[in-house]
Design a protein that fits this description.
The chain is α/β, with parallel strands linked by helices. It has helices spanning 15-21, 45-53, 65-78, 94-108, 124-138, 143-155, 167-171, 177-185, 209-223, 240-254, 266-272, and strands spanning 3-8, 25-26, 29-32, 35-38, 58-60, 81-86, 113-118, 157-162, 188-194, 200-207, 231-236, 258-263, 277-282. The chain is built from eleven helices and 13 strands. The chain has a six-stranded mixed β-sheet, sandwiched between helices. Helix 1 links the parallel strand 1 (3-8) and strand 2. Mean pLDDT is 92; it is low at 176-183.
């Protein structure tokens, strides 16, 4: 019997971390021109954004109960205990579907122990939580402390986001046509955050790409706690150059302990388009768990 930490591909964990920790990442489905693909398994961000730019018809749907059942079942059969950190319920129905699969499995394997946490985070927001939990496990932290820490990390994770184009927010129904057209004409760039319920909320508007990038860095530096002790993340949608620039700005301003750069995958990129950039960090000290986060 082993204690396993797993997640889904909306966490946008970079491949090197997935390979290093051999973590099970459940792929998020995406439909492209009527064909189903699975993020991180049968389609990857580089290819996805190319297809998106070509005008493909793209739709997403959350991992369903059957998919979760199939992914959880091997752990139940092996007698393993699982901690599953999942995509925010404020954005997708992942958490509810996972719990339905859990209930189904408990009928067959009543001793199966699985903890499912609604992270109320997106992209590397919960990717960082997963990473911290894996580091704690690697450094010998007990299971119960890791689960406690995961809940703490989730509750203090912040995402400061901006997009280059409003087109995809309009297509996805998150912006009116009038706002999209007017915003395009005036070169308006929204600053988007994830609220306490795990939903995307536009909090500010600035004019111009460069101002929006500076603003997300400003907010991260204002809200972040002990950034010099944190490993934070900067994520992007097919814009490595801007990701590198924002990471450099964060390092110069906050002297972060480290920065993990990653792509925004299909689950979010389908609704934001290329050019999305976000800074993800904690607004509280991790001192309580510091000995396991070396």
């Amino acid at each position: 019997m082993a204690f396993k930490i797993i997640t889904d591909s909306a966490s946008d964990l970079p491949r090197e971390l997935i390979d290093k920790y051999q973590i099970h990442v459940i792929p998020t489905p995406v439909t492209i021109n009527g064909t189903d693909y699975f993020d991180g398994k049968t389609i990857f961000p580089e290819e996805f954004y190319k297809i998106q730019a070509e005008g493909a018809d793209i739709k997403t749907y959350h991992i369903n109960q059957y998919m979760f059942y199939e992914n959880f079942k091997p752990y139940a059969e092996a007698g393993d205990e699982v901690l599953y950190l999942c995509f925010s319920t404020g954005i997708a129905g992942t958490f509810n579907a996972a719990n339905l699969a859990k209930e189904q499995l408990l009928e067959e394997y009543p001793d199966f122990q699985i903890t499912i946490i609604d992270t109320k985070c997106a992209s590397m927001g919960f990717g960082l939580v997963v990473y911290k939990c894996l580091r704690m496990q690697e450094n010998g932290a007990p299971k119960d402390l890791i689960i406690e820490a995961a809940q703490y990390f989730c509750s203090h994770m912040e995402h400061i986001v901006t997009v280059e184009t409003l087109e995809y927010l309009y297509r996805g129904g998150r912006l009116s046509k009038t706002s999209a057209v007017l915003g395009g004409v005036l070169d308006i760039k929204p600053i988007i955050e994830i609220d306490k319920d795990g939903a995307l909320v536009a909090t500010e508007k600035v004019r111009g790409r460069q101002k929006s990038l500076k603003r997300i860095v400003d907010i991260a530096c204002e809200h972040g706690v002990e950034l010099d002790k944190q490993i934070i993340s900067v994520v992007h949608g097919n814009d490595q150059e801007t990701c590198d620039k924002v990471a450099e700005m964060m390092m110069e301003r906050a002297h972060c302990r480290g920065i993990i750069k990653s792509w925004v995958g299909c689950a979010i990129g389908a609704h934001t388009g290329p050019g999305i950039v976000a800074v993800v960090f904690s607004n509280a000290s991790d001192e309580k768990y510091a000995q396991y986060l070396k």
